[in-house]
Amino acid sequence: AFSNILVAFVIIIALALTFEKDWKVEISDTVKISTILYKDNIKSSDIENLELLNKFPNKRAIRINGGATKEKAYGNFSLEGEGNVRLYVFNKTDKVIKISRKNEETVYINMRKNEETEELFEKLKNFVDK
Length: 130
Known about the structure:
single chain
């Protein structure tokens, strides 16, 4: 019975990866990032540092759980030298935002295009500076 549950779960992840186009990011009193499988709700007081990187760090990322395709990676990963992180990353987009949180794992996120990623970064900066 357990293996059936596992197979079903693997199928759900595969379907989610196939059909999920983009993650949703909503900024109101918190920053809500959501995918079919993962959600993050970040308060401004949780954010220690915000950076716009020109490239995703060239470190080994090991998937703990989540999805990784040629196009994107999201979920929980262990990043060499940084420990556990949460990724919402399109692989073909260079720029990526690094959100360092006080007591939780760092979030790396970008959008499908560099311009969209830059726009999101500006919105996040405004959110934190409020």
